[in-house]
Protein: ATP-binding protein
Organism: Bifidobacterium cuniculi
Amino acid sequence: MEIELGIRNVGRAVTFDTDEPASQVRDTIDQALQEGRPIVLTDNKDRQFVVPADALGYAIIGSETRHAVGFGGIQ
């Protein structure tokens, strides 16, 4: 699933894919914001993204639903 993080005073969003479920990503962000500690998320290539909680402008958590691609339904 795709994650997009908007960082305050940065013109470009941070976008990456993760295998973590949406609920876990949301819980990680919520907990870090409540505790005032950095948000640490891991992408599907095992890279870690660390964002100071007070620098987060927004977070878009993509859908877990896989969308079918192709022309299998056309006859």
Observations:
- The helical segments are 22-35.
- The domain at 2-61 is CATH 2.30.30 (SH3 type barrels.).
- The chain has a mean pLDDT of 88.
